[in-house]
Amino acid sequence: MRFCANALGLSTFITLLLAASLKAEPIPVRYGQGSSHGFLALKTLDGVTIATGESTQVVSRGKVTSRLIFRFKDGSVDEDVTVFTQDKVFRLLTDHHIQHGPSFPKPIDFLIDMTSGDLTFKAEDGSISKEHMDLPSDVANGLPPNLLLNILPSTPETKVSYIAPGKKARLIHIAIRPMGTIPFRVGAFRRKATDFTLHVELGGLTGVVAPIIGKQPSDYHIWLQAGNPPAFVREEGALYEGGPIWRMEQISPSFQ
Fold first, then answer.
1. Spatial distance between the Cα atoms of 130 and 151, rounded to a whole number of angstroms
2. Which N-terminal residues, if any, form the signal peptide (predicted)?
3. Of 72, 80, 139, 180, most Cβ neighbours within 10 A?
């Protein structure tokens, strides 16, 4: 698809308006991230497991490399490798997100390099496009679960920047808001989890932005149990723009 110069100018203008209308800062580190390895299930809202995943995190020489991969029953793959630092605040270094297979109607292979400001998109036909963007320091691609562990439930709202992947990437902003608690159980024990909602901010420009980025994306939810440190309970939302709502939960290995 080709864009005329006027369309590109409008897109840039809207991006600048969105960036100017919202002020966001990198999230301070309250709980430093360590090395870990866990297992996850991706389910429909009806409880049907459609994919199993692994989450690994390795800390080395001041950098944290986080990898989350889901392998779907239909052969699809969703993999996100994120490298960041956590010296007083969280700062993204690189994020490489890949989605392909029947579960993803628009495959992506998208790399963000915060140091250079380069955004690289590999199309399904193998062609590669690259663009440069002046990226704000609070870009949060691949980081939301780690960031939320460091946001107090008493904080009314936290805003971060996010790069929407694509051949023509878009800078958007996400508002993170605690929306109350819900009860859950761990064995015989009753607990409560805070529902953090991640909402894409379109401000007063919804009517202008909609033709470019589509309809208002659905909210994403991450539930955490408060504590020292907080504990991940589950996630729920679309894994791609316009996609179905899926639920992500931790699972334990089974022995047969």
1. 34
2. 1-19
3. 139
